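S.,

Sequence below, as promised.
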Amino acid sequence: MDKYKNAEMELAATIIKEKMNAESVFCFGEATNHKTSCSFFSSQQRRYFNSMHYDFLVVTSAKTGLKPGKRMKIKELMVQEEVDCTLVVHTLEEVEQGLKDNNRFFHTVINTVEHVPGHDKLLAGLFTIPFDKEADQEDVLQRSQAFYADIEAYEQLRYSSQKPHICVPLISRQLEKVCLWLIYVMMGYEPQGYTLKGLVNLCTGIDRRFEKVIPRITEADCYHYKVLMQGVWKGKYGRDREPIMEYLHKAVDDFSSLAEEICGSRLLMVSNLVKKNQCIIN
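The prediction came back faster than expected:
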């Protein structure tokens, strides 16, 4: 991370910290999208745009009610770039309990990523809680089997009917399970009180390719994205706009395939490590 981006990230984190009266803010991800604009039919020269995105863990003293994966735009920054943030918000007590429960997400963020200094005295005790890496590896392999079984069950059910009233909730539910699996395997995080939109935002933070799997470019894209996030279609046949089921099936199939590719690599590595540890013990 260069000095300019580092300063911009710190300023964005400071603004969030002040707005939410947070104890501390940790940046665990960033992305930059480059855009250009020009036309033969315009007198304007070619213009360049950067869209910045940061992922933050926000540690607060009290519950805020914000769902995991909540998006927030920062407008106060004195820069040309658009700055968008994805937030994971937890109280100090929740973070401390997560560390004691061997939560890989909290251990990774608290001990390895940048944060905005502030109430470091309150956080001091968190840095000394040990992390059991081997226990986490075994848990990931075991829990992944349960996740995958749920995903397969919903995949079989959703192809049993093409009626939107029945199929849309099943498709949405499968996407939810895939997101939870991906987030757990790659981040070690288990969202609570989430929305499907928030889960998809977190998945996008893991791999930007998910933005293209469920696009929001055309009007039809936005309509189907809305139906998928709501997880229900309450229209009347022949009177209201019906979702194109092939579109939704393809979206969740492509999303699942990409998640399986990403998780597969991670799980293979973890499996090899577990086997190696077992050989050393024996």
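The chain has a mean pLDDT of 86.

Coffee later?
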